[in-house]
Amino acid sequence: MSVMRFLGATSRDAMRQVRDALGDDALILSNRRMDDGVEVVAVAEEAQSSMVEQAEDVAVPAQAGTPSAEASPAPGQDRLYAEMQAMRELLMSHISETPRPRNARPGVRGVLRQRLITAGFSARLVREMLETLPDELADVDADDPRLLAWSRRQLETRLEVLDDEATMLEEGGVFALVGPTGVGKTTTTAKFAARYVMRFGGDDVALVTTDDYRIGAHEQLRIYARLLGVDVHAVHHEDDLEGLLSRLEGKRMVIVDTVGMSQRDQRVTGQIARLGGAARPVRRLLLLNAASHGDTLEEVVETYQRASRDAGAPLYGCLLTKVDEAPRLGAALDVVMRHRLRLYYVLHGQRVPEDIRLAEAPALLDEALAVGQGSPFTFDEGVLTEMLRPTASGQGLQALSRDLLAQRDQLARVMETLQRSVPGVAWLDAAWRRRESPPAIQQTWLEEHLAPPSMIKAWHGAEATGLCWSGGKPRGMDWAAPMIPLDANGDVLPLAWPLHRWPPSDTQRLTLARRHLGSHWHVFARVPDADVRQQLRESDSPWLARTRVQQRVWHAGERLAIGELVDLAEPCGQHTCRLRGRARRVTLSRLPVALAETDADNLQLWIATSHDSESGRRRGVYHWLGHGGDALDIDMRAFVYRQLEQDDLSRLMRSAWQQLGASAPLDCELRVYLAAQLAALALRMDLSEDGWAVDTRPVVKRLAGERKRRSPDTLLHGLMHLLTAHAALSQAA
Prior knowledge:
flagellum, 8-stranded mixed β-sheet, alpha/beta, 26 helices, Flagellar biosynthesis protein FlhF, 21 strands, 17% strand
């Protein structure tokens, strides 16, 4: 049992001792500050596995014919259980029982949790967000701008707002404003109508009121209608709303001001049902008072959504009223997010038409997160923890149900982020859903989507400017690797095009890539032949090709193997690259060479040597031949570094191919297509530091079910689980 204690002057020093003694995959049991430094208690991963295996061995029942009551204890059983108990007590003492000093700085999660709770967001949403906090943000300062940017992105992906007001108003329709008493429906009706009148005039607008309960409601709407120059109609309880809407069919925009009713009023269902019987569809917009308590808003949405579904269609969207009276917007936005309502407008005063604005997610979230001080009505960390712990079986089942719904929404957001940010992911999702289809359907889909017109259009849409050429059949695969596009930075795009759908010769493929795909950069798995190099030189297209140390080239009048020229290469830069999930320091060297003594090609031999970032130990040497134009030196260096980081693409593709072979019977072309796309996406996700990658990596990594460090292999495994779960939950929904 390798539970060990390390003491260092700083946390960094103590963690270095842990890595040296137990490796990168050690489990940290505790980390606390002492008078003489920092104490870290850790256990080796091998010891954890060994302990579990031993525990399983001693739990195996006695063999048949040997009475279990008479079986003697396994050797070391008492010691094993004692060590397990000691480990459990150690964990509990350091995690649960040891109080945090009053003057200790709260961690990033604690600060972020309190900030969101103070802003009014629910404990459920905060917990869901913190579960996906990226590893690279777990130890930053609480005021690090990256943390705030991540928080805003997480909230923004959950808040659905109206994208195009002009189109919505131009299309028109019948809109019914519904909601509790006093939420501001009549004033909002006038403001909503004013948005249309200011664009298209008042001739095609009609206002309708069904409010025959409130004294003066009709007259108030008539005053607004006269100011706007629009028609107004009143529907009494005994009148037929359906008939009136039929007579107003010539009006492009009809806005119905309904009776305000409490969400606990039994008549809500009947009132909403009245709006569902018209031949012309009625779109129900729910008004929410931003100054109301979160529990009240939750009850309002649940009641009106249920009544609306019973009437034939869910709520069309919502509006936030009285924003100027709300001390915190978090609760209202939280309810809108969790119920996946589209937010149309925000209202912040009584003036018509001034006090209404289009809902814009960034501005609303900035306003919500700008809350400075706490409130006696917000939870502290201890109360929040108690709230999240189920205390009875019924509560536990409800929590499980909520968690399943939250997981479904979370996976949907991750897929939406990937599809929005990475070209080709939508195709990957569509292809994945064909895995279990009959072979004929799989082949039909492939013929439709992998035909040249479709692929050329997709590559242009992805703004692909380069091409990663197939290297034939990777070891362990039955099919040749597809051709994969590169973006302007040299990053692979998950848009695979199987090799057999390309022309047969390399010169024809290069012509297709240049003329129809706009490919400028080229990466080859082997050195291209003379005809292809001639075409590349004539078009001044930069290229790079992996080569072996046995490859012979000409330098200074001699024909030598590349391995003999390494010491002659001139160093030209250093860079920190990410190779197979680890940071490596890479030294780059170059040497002018030629493939033939009289060759006109001005080539460069590029040699990249990787070292461990901490120990300096050499980890690998990589060789390329490529374009030697001086004008592109800086670009070529960056390009070499990027292709070094993506050198693992073929291995990842093989891994995906093998995992796909273990599932449902697949058309071989669909299998190689999926393998290439998955490998490209996993690699791109691991290397990118853009917001979409930072936000989606924690979820994908967690889906892999692995506690190991982030790596392309882990992300590849997680992506397969993501696609499977998303498809299944979407179908179930």
